[in-house]
Each structure stands twice: as structure tokens, then as C-alpha cells.
Design brief:
Mean pLDDT: 93
Low-confidence stretches: none
């Protein structure tokens, strides 16, 4: 990877990236009516799902590998800089309320630390040492997974994170938006979503950012499905931490069981508000402690617990 200390070499490197390419056909975009610009942008965004679709086999293979390790107690760690880092932190932060993941089970690392979520931290994305230090702070194990995220696929922080994690025996995934990227090459599972040049030259928070968001959604959501965090398409491990989520919990129990409001309230009370346990109690006709035991014995998989109760 070319050193960022040589401006001319870096400029030449960036000019070869599809995400940095200049589009002469959009050189007059600032002179167009607002509605025309919006149509252009919308049309560009519409191409992203197709680019993701081309890499679904690689995405699925990565998810299966991540889920296998997380089932053994491993963690899912995202590492990136700038927009890519923020997207990783966002995805990680949404796992506890959505899937009731344990603290530290899904982690988002951003170059420069928490302050980089809202402001640029000078030189952070270029620091391989910082990436190694951030990962060492987590005491990685071979059961863990590190997903390096970088639109260019050459960001030193993301590439170094993946290389360091791999040396430590962790599973590694490299998510980039350029072909032939150092990041994908460094990882066991390289995923390159090639979305092409941006509407604004080099603004990879646009199509590249959207592509990364879609893939990160898949990685976390489908992994959680594989781990038994859902029942069908219901979020049965949702953490009811506010009134909206408490109402959602009751609705999920209703959808899964067809029970009436009074039954649902009794079941949730008997199971300490645990949605999955309440569903099992209602469908299997067991009490709260029995539901908890059956779920523990089935590794948290509701369908398996129901089968055990029926057997």
C-alpha cells in the first residue's frame, strides 16, 4: 500500500479508484434545477442494490462463518474510519435494543475514537498503530470476527485492523467498494461492492456508504437470525427499554401466539418481560421458569425449545 507521505503517489493511487473517478457528464450538475439533481441522485442510488446482489454468495459465506464463531461466544467487531467507521458504530449500537445482544458482543471501532463520530480526527485513518492498539484493547480471541470497512479498500486503519486480527487468529472480513482492494485481499472473506463513481467526485458517503450500510445490515441481521434471535421474522429478543419497545414486545407476542391482551400481560409478567420466554410459555403451555430452562437448553432457539417442549 502506497504511503500517504508521498502526495503525488497518493494522488495517482486515488485516480485509479472507481469510487474517486470524475464524471464529465455531471460537470454542470450545479446549474440544474433542484428536481433534476434529485432525480439524478435517486437514479444513482437505485443502482446500489444490484451491485450488492452481485456479491451475495460472498456475503452469505461471511455470515455463516461469523455466526459459527458467535455461537461459540465470539464477538463481531467493525473497524473503519470516517463514514465507514460511523456506519460500523451505528450497526453495532443498534444490536442491543434490536437483538438483546450482550454488552461488547457487537463492537464498532472508529479511527480516532468516539469523538470521530462527529468530527474529523487528524491522521487517525492513516494510523496502522492506532488500529492495532484499538484491537489489542479488546483482547481478541480466535472466536471473534473483525470486519474492516473502507470504501476505497485502502484505508490504513481498516487494512491494518484486518491484518492484525488475522495474525491473532480471528476471522476477518474486508468490505470495500473498489475491485482488487488491499482490504479484501487481506481478509479471509473479501467483499467488494463496486458501485462506480459518485455523483460528487470522491464523496463516498453516497453510493459507497449506502452499499456498506446494506451489507452491514445483512451481516448483523442474518447472523442474529442464525443465532436464534428471531422467530420467523419477529424480533423475539427485542429489549423493551422504552414505551415504544414495550408496545412492540406485546405486539410481537400477539403475532406469534394469537393470544389476547390479558394472556399476553400475564405471560410477560411471569417471564420478567422476556418476549421469547413469554411466547414459549403461551405456545407450549409452560410456566416462566420452565420456559427459561427450555430456552437455555436449546441455546436460545425458540423453535428448538418448542420442539423440545412438544417432545
Amino acid at each position: 500500500m502506497t504511503s500517504t507521505s508521498d502526495p503525488r503517489a497518493l494522488r495517482a493511487e486515488l485516480e485509479n479508484l472507481t469510487t474517486e473517478a470524475f464524471r464529465p457528464d455531471l460537470a454542470e450538475i450545479d446549474r440544474l434545477p433542484t428536481l433534476d439533481i434529485a432525480r439524478l441522485m435517486n437514479a444513482e442510488d437505485a443502482t446500489v442494490p444490484a451491485a450488492v446482489a452481485e456479491r451475495l454468495p460472498q456475503i452469505a459465506a461471511a455470515i455463516d462463518a461469523v455466526a459459527e464463531r458467535m455461537a461459540r461466544g465470539g464477538r463481531l467487531v467493525y473497524a473503519g474510519a470516517g463514514t465507514a467507521g460511523r456506519l460500523g458504530v451505528l450497526d453495532a449500537s443498534e444490536c442491543p435494543p434490536t437483538f438483546d445482544t450482550a454488552p461488547g458482543q457487537v463492537v464498532g471501532l472508529i479511527a480516532g475514537g468516539p469523538q470521530a463520530m462527529v468530527t474529523s480526527v487528524e491522521g487517525a485513518e492513516d494510523s496502522a498503530r492506532l488500529a492495532r492498539g484499538d484491537l489489542d484493547g479488546l483482547a481478541l480471541t480466535p472466536a471473534d470476527t473483525v470486519v474492516g470497512v473502507s470504501a476505497s479498500g485502502r484505508t490504513p486503519y481498516a487494512v491494518a485492523a484486518v491484518r492484525h486480527a488475522r495474525r491473532l487468529g480471528a476471522l476477518t472480513v474486508g468490505l470495500a467498494c473498489n475491485p482488487g482492494s488491499p482490504l479484501a485481499a487481506a481478509a479471509e472473506h473479501g467483499i467488494e461492492i463496486v458501485v462506480g463513481p459518485e455523483l460528487l467526485t470522491g464523496s463516498t458517503r453516497l453510493k459507497a456508504g449506502t452499499a456498506q450500510k446494506l451489507v452491514l445490515n445483512m451481516l448483523s441481521t442474518i447472523t442474529m437470525i442464525r443465532l436464534g434471535k428471531t422467530y420467523g421474522n419477529l424480533m423475539v429478543d427485542v429489549r423493551a427499554s422504552n414505551e415504544k419497545l414495550r408496545a412492540r414486545s406485546r405486539r410481537i407476542v400477539a403475532l406469534a401466539t394469537g393470544a389476547g391482551d390479558a394472556e399476553i400481560e400475564r405471560a410477560l409478567t411471569a417471564t420478567g418481560g422476556e418476549v421469547k420466554n413469554a411466547i414459549l410459555a403461551l405456545l407450549a403451555g409452560v410456566d416462566g421458569p420452565t420456559a427459561a430452562r427450555l430456552l437455555e437448553e436449546s441455546g436460545g432457539h425458540l423453535r428448538a425449545a418448542l420442539a423440545s417442549a412438544d417432545g
